[in-house]
Amino acid sequence: MSIFPTLTNKTYVVMGIANKRSIAWAIAKTLDEAGAKLVLTYAAERFKSGLESLASELKQEAILLECDVTNDEAIDSTFRSIHEQAGEIQGIAHSIAFADKEALRGEFSEMTRGQFAQALDISAYSLTAVVKAAKPYFAQDASVITLTYLGGERVVPNYNLMGVAKAALDSSVKYLANEYGPHGVRVNAISAGPIRTLSAKGVGDFNSILSELEQKAPLRRNVSAEEVASTGLFLLSGMGSGVTGEVIHVDSGYHIL
Ligand code: NDP
Ligand code: KAL
After folding, report:
1. Tell me, what's the pLDDT at 205?
2. Would the ipTM clear 0.90, i.e. be above it?
3. Total count of domains within the chain
4. What CATH number corresponds to the domain at position 97?
5. How far is the CA of 10 from the centre of ligand 1 (A)?
6. Per the domain annotation, does 2 fall within a domain?
7. Is 228 labelled a binding residue?
8. Which tens digits make up the pLDDT trace of 5-55?
9. Residue 32 domain boundaries
10. Residues 166, 71: Cα–Cα separation, whole Å
């Protein structure tokens, strides 16, 4: 008997696919493999055609919707539309973060008030905004995941204001888990090790972070987006029932050092 969960006829929303390297894309492929009905959201019209060609690789036909998470009305109308087109929502993968590149190098305190507010808005508040908008449409045992990073727990050079945003995100996961638990909705985070994606490109000293993990982490290797996605499948499916308010590190064990 296979223990691979079956998600046939269950609707999952995946937010944050920029391209084929995105962690969200690995999550979408894994959910698709498990038979889920997928809704993929993108930030702006210019990303639509790229996502359409990626989505054509999926087994099931996905619904594509624009959703800029800085806009409350856009979030509300996206979730209304998801409900109209796909019924109740079994789960959401929130894989979205942004900070001004200029603030992701050098001194932490050199950032501006505006850079700080934008990073916290897109990378932390958006999780709550999305959960709030989905509330009327959640299935009774729905599950939400978000992606976080170790730089929210301890100082990692150059991560700067994103570290503060991830700390806020991790804390939001706990408050949301407590509030939504009585409704049967679980909320968890995956803390991923460094993975070469568009976001990781050209920021900080990414290569040295990859090689430090390879040399020191218990597993002595880096992790793949697919490994993050299989933990995502566990949390988003019934296999993770009983787990909420948790941060699971998928980082070869680096965080224990
Ligand atoms: P990607 O660059 O592939 O994904 C980041 C996504 O954020 C993009 O799809 C981007 O959308 C989206 N986004 C930014 N601003 C907005 C907005 N206003 N509205 C909607 N979407 C927006 O990188 P990753 O896959 O690496 O990142 C996904 C998550 O994983 C992030 O939370 C990141 O912090 C986290 N993470 C990544 C790690 C890594 O090493 N890569 C390690 C640990 C955590 P668009 O392209 O359409 O603008
Ligand atoms: C310590 C690490 C090295 C890198 C330092 C900071 C990384 C911050 C992540 C943040 C999400 C990156 C950006 O916001 C980049 C942005 O300013 C420019 N890029 C874009 O606009 C592209 C086109 C779009 C698609 O990107 C976004 N985000 O919209 C952290 C490493 C080791 C681990 C990482 C990369 C963690 C993480 O949180 O992503």
Report:
1. 83
2. yes
3. 1
4. 3.40.50.720
5. 24
6. no
7. no
8. 899 999 999 999 999 999 999 999 999 999 999 999 999 999 899 999 999
9. 11-251
10. 20
